[in-house]
């Protein structure tokens, strides 16, 4: 999610953007609006395709993350992706790998739309507040504005669309017994049984992870790409972007994964009428997991998360670029 949001922010324009003269602005504004719609559609579809292709690994990650929540951690076996995948096929059927994927796709478009819109608004506000011109002459100030704007946009989008993320976790965590029969049934049931705030369980952990994830993604991506291009300037831009994007995804996942695990477990608090396990907030939950399951417990499920990083980013890049090309041709034909 965040990797894709980062890509969208970077493509929104960089420090090297050229100054546009006054008489050129009306034409460029019209082209920018067309480009924005195309980017939004391409980004949403690319995210949906990527999520669908990597959904089995995503569900395995969630199932591993919630192990030990309602059982004695000492009885848990060492996580085995193959063993868990075999269990899913034998007990739930092959289609069960995509449990919760429909709500993931439903979450993707509004999240992308709100991220894109909020980023532009926050960026313009910060430029006015700091008195910085959007002509790319002050590179350090421009980078700070983009990082702050991207972080605020991520927080805004995550807050607005969070109930869908919570529903996705609950649908994915279901095994043989289906307490929630679909998206709308889950939303109604959670609101009725746990109150409207039940739809926002774990939001704090989610928002705490947005800033670090974005900062790590940006810094690792920019640093590795700059070094690579200095050492091997003849290499393909697509290859460099894919490799550096994968490294940034692995780095950000490694650092923020414990917060993601806490978020998932808090999302499942009280699900299906079960008793509450964690009653001490984000940091109390974090400490409780470490005491019960050790340091390994806060990284439960990290392997399938690693495995999905490279194909996820690769599919996003390929789908996004192809759709942009198709939509650009459509725009040209319609004119």
Automatic annotation (TrEMBL):
Solcar repeats lie at residues 34-125, 141-227, 236-326. GO terms for cellular component: membrane. It comes from Lactuca sativa. This is Mitochondrial carrier protein. The keyword Repeat applies. One of its GO terms (biological process) is transmembrane transport. It is found in: Membrane. It is a multi-pass membrane protein. The keyword Repeat applies. InterPro entries: MCP, MCP_dom_sf, MCP_transmembrane. Pfam families: Mito_carr (PF00153). Keywords: Membrane, Repeat, Transmembrane, Transport. Belongs to the mitochondrial carrier (TC 2.A.29) family.
């Amino acid at each position: 999610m965040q990797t894709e949001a980062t890509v969208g922010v970077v493509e929104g324009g960089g420090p090297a953007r050229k100054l546009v003269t006054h008489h050129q602005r009306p034409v460029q504004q019209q082209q920018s609006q067309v480009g924005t719609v195309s980017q939004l559609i391409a980004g949403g579809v690319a995210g949906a395709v990527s999520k669908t292709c990597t959904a089995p690994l995503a569900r395995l990650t969630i199932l591993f993350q919630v192990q030990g929540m309602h059982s004695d951690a000492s009885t848990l076996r060492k996580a085995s992706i193959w063993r868990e995948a075999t269990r899913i096929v034998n007990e739930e059927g092959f289609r069960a790998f995509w449990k919760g994927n429909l709500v993931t796709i439903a979450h993707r478009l509004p999240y992308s739309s709100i991220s894109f819109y909020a980023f532009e608004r926050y960026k313009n506000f910060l430029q006015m507040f700091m008195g910085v011109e959007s002509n790319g002459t002050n590179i350090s100030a421009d980078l700070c504005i983009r990082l702050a704007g991207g972080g605020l946009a991520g927080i805004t989008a995550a807050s607005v669309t969070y109930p869908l993320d919570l529903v996705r976790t609950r649908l994915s965590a279901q095994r043989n017994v289906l307490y929630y029969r679909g998206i709308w049934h889950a939303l109604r049931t959670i609101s009725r049984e746990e109150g409207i705030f039940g739809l926002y369980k774990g939001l704090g952990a989610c928002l705490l992870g947005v800033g670090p994830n974005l900062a790590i993604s940006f810094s690792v991506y920019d640093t590795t790409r700059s070094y690579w291009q200095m050492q091997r300037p003849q290499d393909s831009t697509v290859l460099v972007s894919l490799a550096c994007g994968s490294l940034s995804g692995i780095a950000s996942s490694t650092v923020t994964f414990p917060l993601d695990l806490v978020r998932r477990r808090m999302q499942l608090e009280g699900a299906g009428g079960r008793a509450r396990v964690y009653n001490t907030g984000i940091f109390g939950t974090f400490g409780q997991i470490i005491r019960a399951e050790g340091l390994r417990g806060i990284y439960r499920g990290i392997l399938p998360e690693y495995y999905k990083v490279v194909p996820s980013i690769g599919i996003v890049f390929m789908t996004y670029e192809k759709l942009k090309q198709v939509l650009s041709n459509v725009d040209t034909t319609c004119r």
